[in-house]
Amino acid sequence: MTITCVEKYDSxxxxxxxxxxxxxxxxxxxxxxxxxxxxxxxAPTSFRGLVRQPVxxxxxxxxxxxxDDSIWNGTAKYTPYxxxxxxxxGESSYSFDTSGGSQHITQSLETVASYAISGIAPDFKGxxxxxxxxxxxxxxxxxxxxxxxxxxxxxxxxxxxxYFYLTGRVNDASFKGFxxxxxxxxxxxxxxxxxxxxxxxxxxxxxxxxxxxxxxGDITEISKKGWEYMWPxxxxxxDDTAKAIVKKPVAVYIEKxxxxxxxxxxxx
Length: 268
Hints:
Blueprint: E1 4-7, E2 13-15, E3 19-27, H1 32-42, E4 46-47, E5 50-52, E6 56-61, E7 71-79, E8 92-97, E9 101-105, E10 138-142, E11 145-153, H2 160-166, E12 170-171, E13 183-193, E14 198-207, E15 211-216, E16 219-224, E17 229-239, E18 244-255, E19 260-261
Parallel strand pairs: 12-19
Antiparallel strand pairs: 1-3, 2-3, 3-7, 4-5, 5-7, 6-7, 8-11, 9-10, 11-14, 13-14, 15-16, 17-18
């Protein structure tokens, strides 16, 4: 038996200009895929200016031994056409994550406890995994705020040289709510939009907070900008209490590892 799909007599529930629903009786197959295919080929793709949505079928009677006796109800719903939103030139969008970054540290914030086989454990002043020859440290997650902005830029406002020059630079003044030294520009990627004749540019950034009043061992009142690198120098020192030679921080260095730039030149 040929598969048939016939519109029901009580079909066509219509709200003028808003929605419509056509119902069908499908016979001659026990396979829902075939029922959907015949419904899609029968129900019009548009109806009274409305657009067909994904169709549905519902079994009324299924006979796997004699598919000719199988019956399905089919429904095609229609709604107004909604064109995809295309951002206008000058518009933008924003996304972020706070998953942080990985950093190797050799100094803890605080030694919470120490234990020894006998007597008193040597005090390394927060040095992590200190050995006789070295301070090995540990990898931790540190606060890093990653965010990106997508802007739709006209040809006149496109500044490729600024995007290139400022990549890998840190803000030299307040930028996007971050103090100088906290925001690192990771670069931009973009493509030209044909219909709008403008550019879709995504700018990527990472932010790390400036810090003050840092203590490393017995060294206090240390300050560093967010993207400066801090490292301690260790030296052998005698722990009179534990009667042992230990590695202790004797100096702290703050290194500038990124150039500064005016991220305002990005034009966003």
